[in-house]
Amino acid sequence: MGHVIVIGGGASGMMAAYAAAECGHSVLLLEQNEKLGKKLFITGKGRCNVTNACDMEGLFENTVSNPKFLYSAFYEFNNIQLMELLRQAGCPLKVERGARVFPASDHSSDILAVLTKLLRQSGVDVRLHTKAEEVLAENDCVTGVLLSGGKRLSADAVILATGGLSYPGTGSTGDGHRMAVRLGHTVKECRPALTPMEIVEPWCATLQGLSLKNVTLTMCCKGKRIWDGFGEMLFTHFGVSGPLVLSASSFYYKSKDPDDVTITVDLKPALSVEQLDRRILRDFEENQNKQFKNVLGGLFPSKLIPVMIKRSNIDAEKKIHEITREERSRLVSVTKGLTMHVRGMRGFTEAIITQGGIKVKEVNPSTMESKRIQGLYLAGELLDLDALTGGFNLQIAWSTGHLAGSSIEEINQKQCRNGVDDGS
What we know:
Blueprint: E1 3-7, H1 11-22, E2 26-30, H2 38-42, E3 51-52, H3 56-61, E4 63-65, H4 71-76, H5 79-88, E5 93-96, E6 100-103, H6 108-122, E7 125-127, E8 132-138, E9 141-147, E10 152-154, E11 157-160, H7 175-182, E12 187-193, E13 197-199, E14 211-221, E15 224-235, E16 239-241, H8 243-249, E17 261-266, H9 273-286, H10 305-312, H11 325-336, E18 338-345, E19 353-358, E20 376-378, E21 386-387, H12 392-406
Parallel strand pairs: 1-2, 1-11, 2-7, 11-20
Antiparallel strand pairs: 3-6, 4-21, 5-6, 8-9, 9-10, 12-19, 13-16, 13-18, 14-15, 14-17, 15-16, 17-18
Helix pairs in contact: 1-6, 1-12, 9-11, 10-11
């Protein structure tokens, strides 16, 4: 068996180290932070949405970029296998709305504790506060790792799992991309994904803090639909956020013209236009002598009422019995289609995931080994892979990491190792 170095102690790195050690390799896991899983610790608002309990088809359907590349990874180590591994290692799990899986305790620290336990039991050597500077290679073959202090560590195989660019405070600063580029890999432009949106309309900021549930959001580019979904959203001081918006953001840069993107919210998706009109007419008939502004409480949250009055272009003081059919039609229209223009996405400091990364065509999908450098394996968010919210991105990390670690076969001494110091 060989000596394997894993660079990066996040989800994919920890799983890769565990899988490689279980195959009998001597594994060294390098992490630049003071602890493993720093980003994992804050996921799911500190609860860690560790995966999704959907079927295999659901894993592929919720992957946004390059789902076909993940065929081997998902089938080699899927969500059910992950859940079983965590449970058997001593971490009870629970499944919530949308098949999201969390530790039963609601503490991400329990996931980290059980992963640390697995690493220890498998004999993985974990070195914290240790920053890798470069993956060393000769004759297109991995030879080791150069640390930031200048020390060289020899290795028969290196698994690069340093993450993307999201939440840079956790150490995701693109180091892995730079290392891979030095070795001949290509990085597709990285953009923030699963991130809030900035909105042009000033009235949006007046709704700061308002949460809308059970609404439909449709995103369009030049009037053509590019994504829609049902769920919850939140207004902020700069625009909109929440699960619906985060999912929509993953398709923003896939539009042909990001400068001409709108989102439209259907506030009453359960009602057709005709049904909503009858509902409003019924409310109006019961309050004919009241002012328009005073009869909308049954339709909208109080904070939203001034915006809906203005968007429908109906005089707030107007008596209900004076409102025309045309005006009522405008109210129905804006209720079924509250439209906002997207100025852009928030940055990597607020993005849950990175879209873009090392091009997957340069990686063997059956093993996660580089097609450029023998003995170099790549896993997790530094690859051009991303998915929607709900635990799917973490499952990509677990699956690609596990496949990389378990694909390292018995390694023979390589001629290209000449000149590399022993890392013991």
